[in-house]
Amino acid sequence: MIEIENLRKEYRRGAETVVACSVRALHIERGEQVALIGRSGCGKTTLLNMIAGIVRPSRGALRVAGTDLARLGEGRRDRFRGRHIGMVFQTFNLLQPFSALENVLLGAQFAGHDRAAARDRAHDLLQRVGLGERLHHRPNELSVGQMQRVAICRALINDPELILADEPLGNQDQATGGEVLQMLLGIAREEERTVVMVTHDLDSAALMQRTLDLEHLKEVA
User: Can you give the pTM of this predicted structure?
Assistant: First the structure.
């Protein structure tokens, strides 16, 4: 699913070149559930954003589902992300004026899916995460854990091959966060999706099939 060789993201700060992320090699198979850990500032989120096609690498090879994202322009990366990748964020990014169901459906609208099929899929996902009776509640009427479940359903609405999660449980207590993560991983296993999660929490990382420390993946300069 993910193949990385000598990947690097650099930024210019005056006369200085700052290396935001450097990965010598990384291979993640389809259906794997992988946690990325490492000290703050080591490039975990930058790596996730490159895999998502949000950030373009400065150099190196990055193939996701057989497509070399490093060679695509911004528009093609955006379209690729909409079709193949679902994202879960720490801050949820739910829109307050819309219900739980509407927030999930927004992701399907951007991808251009059939409305009736998308609505059925959204209903099914929300039922599976225990929100069948909360379909028409707005985010401010939901608990933190319930909002995160809505965010997970939104990430899954387009049947993505790859799910990327950036510190998805940072706003929750350990018990609630663990329950929500188990729901995400359970659905991913049922639907044979690949999951890559950035986390600082070793308990959450232990729920994944594999844990990789980004410090050990650095490219040799």
Answer: 0.87
